[in-house]
């Protein structure tokens, strides 16, 4: 689909868009060959983040989309229909009824994409908050360490992606290609600032994940300490009982109480007194 920016934004054909003073196009990969021939665009694979210049056209390659920019047209080629289509529709809504240039078109579309990235980071932060509460409540999953590792790697990848976008925006703002009006290069400063904020937010999330891993490890250590404390108490309480039963278990003929009808009862009573005494002593000593 193509839109022409005249007095009003109009939905036009690709042929009509080519003849317009300024147009915005949104196409899928299946339509790329036809549009490349019609607009004489360079063809580049989607997926490699970066940019290049060919003739009077600048191609910006972002995640799952390429953006071709010329003085009279901005064309988005997408493999992710929903996300980029929404960004295009929001771009048209924001620019409807105002003066538009290719720089402002590119700025508005990329700004919409970065706004979506901000929502991704917010959802990420909410997920970490839920995980932190699970750790505090002792309800975390057994695979939490693996999950946190994967989330950390994802944040690192996002941070690298935002850094690359920042570099691209900075290069576009230099306008070495003379594609954008000089008085509208300010838009790239705004985009650069947003990319910087996203990068800083991704770093904060990485720090948050490291904090969660430390908290999880601390929780595990605390539980282990409680278990070892219980085992220590059991050992201290029953060690004297083991000595008593072992002593009478040697079956020496002249051992006191060995032949007494009250021997077993007396030994049991002594064992109970010793056990209770040890528990009281441990309670007092905490």
From TrEMBL:
Keywords of this protein's UniProt record, alphabetized? Cell membrane, Membrane, Transmembrane, Transmembrane helix, Transport
What Gene3D superfamilies does the record point to? Magnesium transport protein CorA, transmembrane region
* A Gene Ontology cellular-component term: plasma membrane
Q: Where in the cell is it found?
A: Cell membrane
Q: Which InterPro entries match?
A: CorA_cytoplasmic_dom, CorA_TM1_TM2, MgTranspt_CorA/ZnTranspt_ZntB
One of the record's GO molecular function terms: magnesium ion transmembrane transporter activity
Topology of this chain in the membrane:
Multi-pass membrane protein
Q: What is its main location?
A: membrane
| Membrane-traversing stretches | 230-250, 262-282
Q: Which family does it belong to?
A: Belongs to the CorA metal ion transporter (MIT) (TC 1.A.35) family.
What protein name does the entry list?
Answer: CorA-like Mg2+ transporter protein
- Native organism taxonomy: Bacteria, Bacillati, Bacillota, Clostridia, Eubacteriales
